[in-house]
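seq as requested:
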Amino acid sequence: MSYSLPPEQEFALLQLLLYIFSFATLVLIFLYIAAERPGEGKKKAEEEEE
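struct tokens:
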């Protein structure tokens, strides 16, 4: 059983996978930034106390 795709479909599939991976990467970057934000709030609170 050999699944041979025409070149156009193979390219479309690779493009779809690239879009999925790039979207997942953007989501992970957003979550990383959102997780780092509370630390900045603590720094600002400490500066206001001084």
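The longest helix spans residues 7-49.
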